Amino acid sequence: MTTSVHPDVERDLVDPARSRRDRPEQRPGRHRRERVPADDLTVIIPAYDEVASIADTVRSVLGQSTPPARVVVVDDCSTDGTGEAARAAGAEVIRPEHNTGSKAGAQNLALGLVDTAYTMAIDADTTLAPDAIETLLEPLEADASVAAACGFVVPRHVRSVWERGRYVEYLLSFTFYKPTQDHYGAPLIASGCFSAYRTDVLRDAGGWSERTRAEDMDLTWTFFQRGHRVRFVPEAVCYPIEPHDLDFMTKQLRRWSHGFVQNVRLHWRGILPLPFLSTAVGVAMVDAVVASLVYLLVLPVLAVVVSPWLLAAYVVDVPAILVPVLVAARRRGEVGKALASVPAFLVLRIVNGVFMIRALWSEVVLRKPLLVYEKGH
């Protein structure tokens, strides 16, 4: 892996004064430490054929209460005008001679340009709350042992069954699982759509690895094994565009499920000495295997052989799911939206199980790893 810049890479520098102008005032009632200077942060946005969303992403970054010193968009040989749209919105744009082949490859290309203390990675379809950057940087500024920080993720659109399912999944994960993991000092993953890093620690880890299809999980577990800390900051909120149809959802779930299995195989020896992380990963793996088999095979068979009433097991845990989901939804004034989206979550949970079983069979039994990065939001 390399972080050097190809000599033919196109560079288009933004007005250096732009990131220091028109900064929104800090919201009343927020008590903060001294802000991280804008010159300490570079934002990297990897993009391939993202003309529909890239301008919104760039503008949301430049419009932050603490804008970064640089916003670098990697136009990874797009065919739809992504680079021009990003440039017009105010970002630097670099374009490799050939497509890098993955999100990690695009991010590593830009990492070679970074000369700031902090680096932030944001997906090209993700916008930020107005104070998300300064909020996310706080733990990095306060504690030198923190290598990375990740924020709260909420789907920008909640309309289709797939978006609704992901909406409930995120409210559950970022209201219950992620805070619990952070309490024990080991968030399972610093989400690739919106995370910040110490640049020197990121470079020392080799940047974003291309050896798995879940580069953000790979990097997070690498940090833990090197003795670094990762923090979850729920007040730092981002809004990605999630898959709206089965085609995009299929690509995303295939990448995520294969990436999880690949990371477990790659890191299991290294995480065994880390009590909470190894337990969390073990529980996640058992849940992925056992729960998926129960949902997809055991329950349908028992419903036929014993009693159809056993199908009620599909929804027996819904009350437990609803508690953290409704807590998060109430804070956002979205209780009705959350309740209406729960059935979609139950559908998505079963589909998740299908992809996890397929990934395990392909990666472990057939020894056919997923090697191609498929864009799926």
UniProtKB/TrEMBL annotation:
Region described as Disordered: 1-38
UniProt keywords, alphabetically: Glycosyltransferase, Membrane, Transferase, Transmembrane, Transmembrane helix
Bias kind Basic and acidic residues: ranges: 7-28
TM annotation in the entry: 274-297, 309-327, 339-361
UniProt keyword Transmembrane helix, yes or no: yes
Annotated Glycosyltransferase 2-like domain residues: 42-204
Superkingdom, natural source: Bacteria
Gene3D superfamilies given in the database record: Spore Coat Polysaccharide Biosynthesis Protein SpsA, Chain A
Family to which the UniProt record says this protein belongs: Belongs to the glycosyltransferase 2 family.
Identification of the protein by name: Glycosyltransferase family 2 protein
